[in-house]
Amino acid sequence: DSIFSHVVLAPEDPILGVTVAYNKDPSPVKLNLGVGAYRTEEGKPLVLNVVRKAEQMLLNDRARVKEYLPIVGIADFNKLSAKLILGADSPAIQENRVTTVQCLSGTGSLRVGAEFMARHYHQKTIYIPQPTWGNHPKIFTLAGLSVKTYRYYDPTTRGLNFQGLLEDLGSAPSGSIVLLHACAHNPTGVDPTLQQWEQIRQLMRSKALLPFFDSAYQGFASGSLDQDAQSVRMFVADSGECFVAQSYAKNMGLYGERVGALSVVCKTADVASRIESQLKLVIRPMFSNPPIHGASIVATILKDSNMFREWTIELKAMADRIISMRKQLFDALRTRGTPGDWSHIIKQIGMFTFTGLNSKQVEFMTREYNIYMTSDGRISMAGLSSKTVSHLADAIHAAVT
Ligand code: PMP
């Protein structure tokens, strides 16, 4: 008898489990709209041309070795990542008051930032939007923070509950940490307007609430890297402090390379370097030092102006295809005369549409139409194509009528 016979079978991850179920389905018309990974019009995963080119250059460089990186990763990668999110002309970077460490994609960056806060910040409570990416509460709880939520989404308008958000942040204890999605909020696809961001900023600064930005979709929402970074840059322009977790999973298609960065914007260069020394103490016992390959690809692309331009074009093409799928799905439902207001499909931003379909309707669509998505009714627009949109529209129509 095993000494582990008491171990119970854990449930599948609510998001990754959708793909597990999809893979088991033999139907030729099955559609996976669960996981947030980009697919081409042909439904295939995409490796960007500029990524292939960078990999070829790395392969040809015989001077490259496989030694350990420093604890904080590749110096060039870190500098370029900070410039990408904060802006090339950011005073905070010029004044050396930003420290950036390479981490294991967005997830790892969030975890390292949160563990630092649990050790060194006086407030241990982090407010996360309701709803949010399902991994957020687990990451922050395991890092040693206590998690509370602030109102974010209004199901009746399928838009932002701005009043509720202001009330909840307004009554949070001074100094609390606030998790903000930089753009393309997951799962709702609902972002504050720039005017609303400005109000959020003023409220947070007046109460000394500490912003922790999660930037998993820069460039993927609007097609413009600068536009998608505006929320973060507003909070840096006021000279206040903030944390930013960046992921290159979506915007460079480097999902499995696990490449990301954590930046801490500080008031002074001196504080920044002391924080960096402490981030090393968080990282060393967690994974010692980060992997080379993905970050080398990113650094190669970011530091060459031609490759950078090529990347922005490929990135915009991905964003545009997603935006066009929104339009096509909206039109297909209108053509069918599907009851209800579906304008949120074209109003929402980024990879996901929060359809408003309930778990019963989702179950029906999976059972009758072999369409897979999370039970909260979130669909990945990136998993849809002109060829599959009518199948989805048929399923939604049948589910609500
Ligand atoms: N934050 C949000 C909001 C996300 O949607 C994701 C990816 N699903 C991540 C962070 C992190 O992803 P990764 O660790 O793959 O970069």
UniProtKB/TrEMBL annotation:
Ranges for domain Aminotransferase class I/classII large: 30-396
The enzyme's E.C. designation: 2.6.1.1
UniProt keyword Transferase present: yes
A Pfam family per the record: Aminotran_1_2
Top-level taxon in the UniProt lineage: Eukaryota
GO MF terms, alphabetically ordered: L-aspartate:2-oxoglutarate aminotransferase activity; pyridoxal phosphate binding
GO (cellular component) term, any one: mitochondrion
Keywords (A to Z) from UniProt: Aminotransferase, Pyridoxal phosphate, Transferase
Record InterPro entries: Aminotransferase_I/II_large, Asp_trans, NHTrfase_class1_PyrdxlP-BS, PyrdxlP-dep_Trfase, PyrdxlP-dep_Trfase_major, PyrdxlP-dep_Trfase_small
Gene3D superfamilies in alphabetical order: Aspartate Aminotransferase, domain 1, Type I PLP-dependent aspartate aminotransferase-like (Major domain)
Single biological process term from Gene Ontology: amino acid metabolic process
Primary enzyme class: transferase
Needed co-factor(s): pyridoxal 5'-phosphate
Reaction(s) this enzyme catalyzes, per UniProt: L-aspartate + 2-oxoglutarate = oxaloacetate + L-glutamate
Assembly mode: Homodimer.
Other comments on record: In eukaryotes there are cytoplasmic, mitochondrial and chloroplastic isozymes.
Family: Belongs to the class-I pyridoxal-phosphate-dependent aminotransferase family.
Protein's name in the database: Aspartate aminotransferase
Source organism (scientific name): Hibiscus syriacus (Rose of Sharon)
